[in-house]
UniProtKB/TrEMBL annotation:
Pathway given in the UniProt record: Cell wall biogenesis; peptidoglycan biosynthesis
UniProt protein name: UDP-N-acetylmuramoyl-tripeptide--D-alanyl-D-alanine ligase
Family membership noted in the UniProt record: Belongs to the MurCDEF family. MurF subfamily.
Superkingdom, taxonomy of origin: Bacteria
PANTHER family registered for this protein in UniProt: UDP-N-ACETYLMURAMOYL-TRIPEPTIDE--D-ALANYL-D-ALANINE LIGASE (PTHR43024:SF1)
Gene Ontology molecular function: UDP-N-acetylmuramoyl-tripeptide-D-alanyl-D-alanine ligase activity
The reaction(s) this protein catalyses: D-alanyl-D-alanine + UDP-N-acetyl-alpha-D-muramoyl-L-alanyl-gamma-D-glutamyl-meso-2,6-diaminopimelate + ATP = UDP-N-acetyl-alpha-D-muramoyl-L-alanyl-gamma-D-glutamyl-meso-2,6-diaminopimeloyl-D-alanyl-D-alanine + ADP + phosphate + H(+)
Any Pfam family matching the protein: Mur_ligase_C
Subcellular location: Cytoplasm
Length: 465
């Protein structure tokens, strides 16, 4: 079995960071977590909730090639393989910049209020067979996630897909400048993180700052038909970008979207060319994201026909809208995150599914700012709610939606998601189609966990029977 290729030598990493390397080690990967570290990785001792220096000895014992540190930790030999820098996070950023600088392929950055991770995964799947593709893991899109993704990038990467997120003003532009994308795509702008921005216009300007990092004559893929589309265009124009709009009235637009048997069959017009593709989902909002992906990837030099054909390889990730059969239920698990726009998309997806009673289980949408109560109440007026039979809610904010619902649709309300999870037998019955949605911190995913545990118990009982 051949060894993994070398990603960083001690000398290269020291030159990139301005640090001091101990030993002549070579690293085949970069890790920040001893739980998932692989032999040959460079362990980065970040200081976050816990100090990564406390885990250096464990990382080396698990086979790490070396550790990026700001001091020699207690319990680690003075001659251990280390890269010593003044500041570990800054060292990781420097490593990321160097990783980007030595790569000769194309970089696509993806940001937006909703759908960053699923769109990034969609783009990775669509590029199958078109060279070496490197993309962020999970939702690694923040101040350490972006440099980590860049530091992990093989030098012979043909296409890199970098997800960029934010929680507060001023975060996106520096990350984009680090990634230096050739193409930057914004999925959509919606009421998310309003607490930090005050108004959706502020969110649009922050998301639009992704264009500040574009390479010369870079391309900006922006959603059309939004109240803030002009703000995004202004941001792209200021950056000197070539703008391609996607949406019902964009240069890249869906022509036909049909749902049948859990599959979307789509036709799209992408800057003058027509292509057909399929998606393994019934969520029509994913079709619009796919149109944006096709525009972005072809702008980066990918073959449009191949890209469209391989969109069928994409699967919605767990907790982000995947549909599964579970113990007589059809479950849409979308419990990873929530804001008004993504919840509306989830409700529309539920309404489009045929057969059985439609049930919704909702946790609080967080970080919505001063209008959070009104935004929760407004969900009752969503057009897709007409097709919903029953709504269960958890959390103090969702209590306002619960009160605004017609009595016939009102299910249970509990203060916490845990209380709702303890009453799964009251929430659904066999044959129901179920959407579970809420912000991650609402812990509404505990309801999904409880439903899965119940299904596992039932399956075990049947096996024994």
């Amino acid at each position: 079995m051949s060894a993994d290729p070398v990603l960083w030598t001690a000398a290269d990493a020291a030159a990139a960071t301005g640090g001091r390397a101990q030993g002549s080690w070579t690293a085949s990967g970069v890790s920040i977590d001893t739980r998932t570290i692989r032999p040959g990785d460079l362990f980065v001792a970040l200081q976050d909730a816990r100090d990564g220096h406390d885990f250096v000895a464990q990382a080396l014992a698990k086979g790490a090639a070396a550790a990026l540190v700001s001091r020699i930790p207690e319990g680690v030999a003075s001659d251990a393989p280390l890269l010593i820098v003044a500041d570990v996070l800054r060292g990781l950023e420097d490593l990321g910049r160097a990783g980007r600088a030595r790569m000769g392929g194309k970089v696509i950055a993806i940001t937006g209020s909703v759908g960053k991770t699923s769109t990034k995964d969609m783009a990775r799947a669509a590029l199958t067979g078109q060279g070496r593709v490197h993309a962020a893991e999970a939702s690694y899109n923040n101040h350490w996630g972006v440099p980590l993704t860049l530091a992990r990038m093989p030098i012979d990467t043909d296409f890199a897909i970098i997800e960029i997120g934010m929680s507060n003003p001023g975060e996106i532009a520096p990350l984009s400048r680090m990634a230096r994308p050739h193409v930057a795509m914004i999925t959509t702008i919606a009421a998310a993180h309003l607490q930090a921005f005050g108004a959706i216009e502020g969110i649009a300007r922050e998301k639009g700052s992704v264009f500040q990092g574009l390479e010369p004559v870079g391309q900006a893929i922006i959603p059309e038909d939004l109240p803030v589309t002009q703000i995004l265009r202004d941001c792209a124009d200021t950056a000197g970008a070539v703008v391609i709009g996607f949406g019902d009235h964009g240069a890249a637009r869906p022509v036909r979207v049909q749902s049948e048997g859990g599959i979307l069959t789509c036709r799209a017009r992408i800057t003058g060319e027509t292509v057909d593709f399929t998606l393994a989902t019934t969520g029509r909002h994913f079709a619009m994201n796919a149109v944006g992906v096709l525009a972005a990837l072809t702008a980066a030099g990918a073959d449009l026909a191949q890209t469209a054909a391989h969109l069928s390889n994409w699967q919605p990730p767990k907790g982000r809208g995947a549909v599964e059969d579970l113990d007589g239920l059809r479950l849409i698990d979308d419990a990873f995150n929530a804001n008004p726009a993504s919840l509306s998309a989830g409700l529309a997806m539920l309404a489009a599914l045929e057969g059985g009673r439609r049930v919704v289980i909702l946790g609080d949408m967080l970080e919505l700012g001063a209008d959070e109560i009104a935004l929760h109440r407004a969900v009752a007026d969503d057009p897709a709610m007409a097709a919903v039979d029953l709504v269960h809610c958890a959390g103090p904010l969702m209590r306002h939606l619960h009160a605004a619902l017609p009595e016939a649709k009102r299910g249970l309300w509990t203060e916490t998601a845990g209380e709702l999870a303890a009453r799964t037998h009251e929430l659904v019955t066999a044959g129901d189609t179920l959407l579970v949605k809420g912000s991650k911190s609402s812990r509404i995913s505990t309801v999904v966990d409880a439903l899965r545990a119940r299904a596992a118990r039932n399956a075990t009982a049947q096996d024994k029977g």
